[in-house]
Amino acid sequence: MTEPRYTSEHEWIRLDSGVATVGISAYAQEQLGDVVYVELPEVGRKVAAGDNMAVVESVKAASEVYAPVAGEVAEVNAALADKPETINEDAEGTGWFVRLKGVDAAAVSALMDADAYKKYVSSLD
Amino acid sequence: MPGTAPATDALLRTPLHALHRELGAKMVPFAGYDMPVQYPDGILKEHLHCRASAGLFDVSHMGQARIDGAGAVAAFEALVPGDIAALAPGRMRYTMFTDDSAGILDDLMVAAREDGGLVVVLNAACKADDMAHLEAGLTGGARATLMDDRALLALQGPKAADVMARFAPGAEGMKFMSAAEMAIAGIDCFVSRSGYTGEDGYEISVAASGAEALARRLLAEPEVVPIGLGARDTLRLEAGLCLYGHDIDTTTTPVEAGLAWTISKRRRAEGGFPGAARIQRELAEGPARKRVGIRPEGRAPARDGTAVSDSAGHAVGTITSGGFSPSLGAPVAMGYVASSAAAPGTALALDVRGRALAARVADLPFVPHRYHKG
User: What is the number of other CB atoms lying within 10 angstroms of the CB of residue B360?
Assistant: First the structure.
């Protein structure tokens, strides 16, 4: 399994065998607090980098989730509908949001690696 | 997703600020103060704990003021629709400052003291304007003094009375909406049996210098956990209580807001407060719109500002508070709708991110009040 990359908007993306899995970072879920609802895109939707792709709602507020890179939605994590708290429990694992196909591997590797993201997050606090 | 912490420069701090940090609170700016939005347990657990046991809230950002001097009661009553003259010493009421068009300038609690003065609790974001309003509006010998050397704690929940009985014998027998001076664990306080959660509980005014010692004593009890502003908001929403700046403001009247119960028969008849003409007209003819409870179908919350339509697609109102109810495990909201669409059960459509989300008008509160009526 490849290493995840991160965006400055706190999404993570991991490319495995041409399919990219996307979610929100552990830092993001901690900032959000208890997640109570997730709105996911239709399978087949084409997204450009930075497009609003999903919505995650905590008790406090709704936040948009952006596509880290361009691609086509191949699969969504339907289990989140009944168990949105999975995002709090395992944001960078079973709490994934969508899988994208047709992504440019170079666009993924151009994003922050775990160390760079960690430094970025520490600059925010 | 966006989410960076706003700058916390120049924010005011309550006397419990260091304790919040020690307890691991996530601090956020609120009404000019650096306040705990949640502790490590998180909003859902804090909320459910308060409904099941007891929670301690720091609400020291709120304004506490005394109204004293000759004619204090009559002078204050001229600024609010509530019946203050009928308030016996040791009793308190919920009322509001209104403007000349019956808009709500702030909502507040007012307690009558044994010495003939009044004590009011004001919203943090409104307190400066409220004090100017009092200074300009109080007549005769009445004067208002902000007690900014005091903290305010709220102990709320079904176990609150058990906890209080240990430190202030007799507090467990206080009736809902009564207030008295008493020592809690030897610390002088002004205590009311009231709150903003729908649960039984107390609001405790204490000198800033004693606030941390008192909070630590209460938090050491097994029933009590600290609760942040996040759960304070979900608790009051479930209880159907208004949040100033959202559910009520200068564009809403007490009658539209469903707060006519705070206006006694005498005051309805006599008037004599700002906006009385409009309030009397709305009481007689019914308001054009009403604050109602709204239950969206499904799990998606509908937030403040969401447009509300009737089942035919005609705009009928707006949501003013909305979120997720931890007690019900479902979204809940409050908002204003045209009186023709305000009956419980009326089908509505909520515009959530461009989609029509089905909803119905629901009775308030969403979770029954459990006040200690004695």
Answer: 15
